[in-house]
Write a structure and sequence with these properties.
Radius of gyration: 35 Å
Structural class: alpha+beta
Number of strands: 25
Number of domains: 2
Distance between the termini: 91 Å
Strand content: 25-35%
Length: 493
């Protein structure tokens, strides 16, 4: 019997093993023994993962602003908003009337229902029934035109109306000149300020029905996936990804979950209803969903410039618009850094004698009247014109990988002002939040945050044949923005 072993260079050790390091390197190229044994030194690896960009998740913004969660049981959410209590009558002048009356081509009796609607001039004396600008005034109503002249409605039809001035040399004939020159074919909005009737006259023959606006917002289905092979699931790395676990795939799975939650929230913020899907490409049945920014662009208060560039006058202009819309007394302001600094400069530069109050003088009703709670949540507050503004940084608008660039600030959003109050539903009378996150759910099954794993034995999941574990995420959600006319969208540089 012959016995042999494959040996190395010096025939005293198995192949691939050298018993010493002597003369294996040029002595002139090293200074110490450590140069030879550096490959067997354990690396000094720090297990903590540095948060180079801070906490990067942006989800949670809607909850911070008071948005509540509700369950949905249909493919879309319907909600109602009330219209204005008082209505405005719109009409045009058939011919121009000079202020001094000396060269008037017609009298105020020529005011009729001629409209300029959607850029198309309508015939004098008629209304476009498809528009919201219909005959709402009644005989006996008093209209206010050009801010000063009062007109008595003497006749109405389904498509027009006739007025006479209350003041003038011959009011019965409607021959008085207006206090301000009227423009030929110009559209005038005339508030109905009241009515007057003769003694012994009957009640009005028509009445106004209160109107509500029905709005519908479909749900959006958001999905995400992540997978890890069985081999990678058993690899141990250097980094502690949490709780003393060094399997790095767990970090990737957690990041996937966070990205999913961020995207779900961004769809509720930036979603749009679909109008141009080409069914030939196989994409069908996607209705889209109205996001928060879309709702504000459509029916909110939009500032085309940053607030504070012109000092307090910017804020005062905004407050006057809020007053027109019956806005509540408290607002949460979320903005990018540029807008945030402008607000700081505006408040700091208000000077003595200003009606701007900051900090202790502000109301904290949204935070249980607790100033410390507001400060702990990162809010700084100030008051102006009966309104209190609680401002905070909007992380989404500062992240350069998302909306933190100049183009977004100029064209889409540099900040929002969200009313911190409930809205009364005009049909039910119940109070509802101005922002409401809805998730499909019924019978104990919720699609708010669905998460399941499939796998071919990997990590114990045995419902597949592949040597992987697949993590799946799904949510069906939409955002309801009530009374968007009280919300503010800030755009511009």
């Amino acid at each position: 019997m012959a016995i042999s072993q494959n040996t190395g260079t010096f025939s005293s050790a198995p192949k691939g093993i050298n018993n010493n390091l002597y003369n294996l390197a040029d002595p002139t190229k090293y200074t110490s023994l450590h140069d030879f044994i550096k490959d067997v030194n354990a690396p000094d690896v720090r297990a903590q993962l540095s948060k180079t960009f801070g906490a990067q998740g942006i989800s949670g913004f809607l909850e911070m602003t008071g948005a509540v969660k509700n369950n949905g049981t249909a493919d879309s959410v319907q909600f109602f908003e009330e219209a204005r209590l008082h209505q405005i009558q719109t009409g045009t002048i058939a011919s121009a009337i000079d202020k001094d009356g000396s060269a008037q081509a017609s009298t105020l009796t020529d005011i009729a229902g001629g409209l300029i609607f959607d850029g198309v001039a309508q015939a004098d004396g008629t209304f476009t029934d498809a528009s919201s600008k219909q005959v709402v005034c009644r005989v006996g109503d008093i209209l206010l035109i050009n801010g000063v002249d009062r007109l008595l409605v003497t006749e109405t039809t389904a498509t027009g109306f006739t007025c006479k001035p209350l003041l003038g040399a011959n009011a019965a004939d409607g021959a008085a000149a207006p206090s301000v020159a009227l423009v030929d074919e110009q559209e005038y909005n005339m508030p109905i300020i009241g009515n007057m009737f003769a003694q012994g006259s009957d009640q009005p023959t028509r009445f106004l029905e209160s109107n509500v606006v029905k709005r519908t917002n479909p749900y959006a289905i958001v999905k995400e996936s992540y997978e890890v092979s069985g081999s990678q699931a058993t690899n141990i790395g250097y980094i502690d990804v949490g709780g003393g676990d060094y399997r790095y795939y767990i970090k990737s799975e957690m990041d996937t979950r966070q990205r999913f939650m961020d995207k779900r929230e961004m769809i509720m913020l930036l979603g749009q209803k679909v109008t141009n899907i080409d069914t030939s490409n196989g994409i069908t049945d996607i209705e889209g969903t109205e996001g928060y920014f879309s709702a504000l662009e459509d029916r909110g208060i939009v500032s085309s410039t940053l607030i504070g560039q012109a000092g307090l006058s910017d804020l005062d202009l905004l407050i006057r618009e809020m007053d027109k819309n019956g806005a509540p007394a408290e607002y949460a302001v979320y903005s990018n850094t540029q807008q945030d600094l402008l607000l700081d400069d505006m408040i700091g530069g208000a000077g003595a004698g200003s009606s701007v109050t900051a900090g202790v003088a502000s109301s904290y009703g949204a935070f249980n009247n607790d100033r410390d709670m507001a400060l702990n949540l990162g809010f700084k507050s100030y008051s102006r014109g009966g309104y209190t503004f609680h401002k905070n940084s909007f992380k989404l608008l500062n992240d350069p990988t998302l909306l933190g660039n100049t183009d977004v600030a100029n064209r889409l959003c540099a900040g929002v002002m969200i009313p911190l109050a409930n809205v009364v539903d005009p049909r039910s009378g119940e109070r509802a939040p101005s922002l409401e996150m809805n998730y499909k759910a019924a019978g104990g099954y919720s699609r708010e945050m669905e998460h399941w794993v499939t796998g071919g034995g990997v990590l114990g999941f045995t419902n597949d044949t592949q040597d992987v574990a697949k993590f799946h995420y799904r949510s069906e959600s939409c955002l309801v923005t009530r009374a968007a006319n009280q919300h503010v969208l800030i755009q511009g540089s």
